């Protein structure tokens, strides 16, 4: 029996402790019909245990309380893949399997870049889903030969691009002001704009202006590229 609510549903039949070989599965989707349908189908599978389901807005800490091994994440909804990062912070060892993935290169690449452990296409069956869950637990990935080739090609192309653009020239390093170097250090440590503003005791708008300047000086478009450019930079003095 599954007790359902608009936000969170928990399987009361699932024992608190299970043998490690049986994955504890949690379902995340904003579509209640999808959550309920998957729950009803998966409870009939003896090799997995459904411990609950929730909407995307549910706090990852609430999901973590149920200690799932695998989270089935609906990536069709806006913000679906973005939740993967928060889930990994709350559950570092959880395996995330993206469900309802469109069978196109861009969507598969987006899943890979978000750090999901597996995916099931929109045309996948319950058995495909169960297989993906068990493979994720074993650190394996189920995909077609075409997708495997595309992923290898993408990784190779990305690594080549990183090698070409990673190193920041001494001129770029020297162009940053002392304050911009402080912000870069905090950015690479993973702090958000608000956290940087609080740390340096400056306004959030000021942080945004500095980051805009940093991106321009380093000729990058995203925050994540700043750390790559900093690697290998010569230890010269910053501009005042």
- The CATH C-level name of the largest domain is Alpha Beta
**Major sheet summary line:** 7 strands, mixed
Structural class by SSE content: alpha/beta
The helix tally amounts to 11
| Total of domains | 2
Estimate the helix proportion, in percent: 40-55%
Strand elements, count: 7
Q: What sort of overall outline do the alpha carbons produce when their principal axes are compared?
A: elongated
CATH-level-4 superfamily name of the largest domain: Response regulator
Radius of gyration: 22 Å
Order of helical and strand elements: EEEHEHEHEHEHHHHHHH
The residue ranges in which pLDDT falls below 50 over 5 or more consecutive positions are 1-6, 14-19, 232-240
- The CATH architecture of the largest domain would be 3-Layer(aba) Sandwich
Largest sheet strand order: 1-2-4-3-5-6-7
Mean pLDDT: 79
Oligomeric composition of the shown chains: single chain
Question: What is the CATH fold-level name of the largest domain?
Answer: Rossmann fold
Strand content: 5-15%
Distance between the termini: 66 Å
């Amino acid at each position: 029996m599954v007790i359902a609510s608009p936000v969170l549903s928990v399987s009361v039949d699932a024992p608190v402790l299970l043998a490690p070989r049986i994955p504890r599965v949690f379902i995340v989707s904003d579509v209640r019909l999808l959550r309920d349908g998957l729950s009803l189908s998966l409870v009939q599978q003896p090799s997995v245990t459904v411990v609950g389901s929730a909407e995307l807005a549910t706090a990852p800490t609430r999901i973590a309380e149920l200690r799932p091994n695998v989270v089935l994440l609906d990536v069709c909804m806006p913000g679906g893949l973005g939740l993967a990062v928060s889930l990994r912070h709350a559950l570092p060892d959880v395996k995330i399997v993206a469900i309802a993935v469109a069978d196109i290169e861009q969507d598969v690449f987006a899943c890979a870049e978000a750090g999901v452990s597996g995916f099931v296409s929109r045309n996948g069956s319950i058995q495909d889903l169960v297989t993906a869950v068990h493979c994720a637990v074993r650190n394996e990935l189920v995909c077609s030969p075409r997708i495997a080739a595309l992923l290898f090609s993408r990784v190779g192309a990305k690594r080549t691009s990183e090698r070409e653009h990673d190193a920041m020239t001494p001129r770029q390093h020297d162009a940053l002001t002392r304050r911009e170097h402080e912000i870069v250090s905090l950015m690479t440590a993973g702090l958000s704009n608000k956290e940087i503003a609080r740390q340096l005791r400056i306004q959030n708008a000021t942080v945004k202006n500095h980051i805009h300047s940093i991106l321009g000086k380093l000729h990058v478009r995203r925050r994540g590229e700043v750390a790559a450019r900093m690697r290998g930079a010569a230890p010269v003095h910053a501009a005042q």
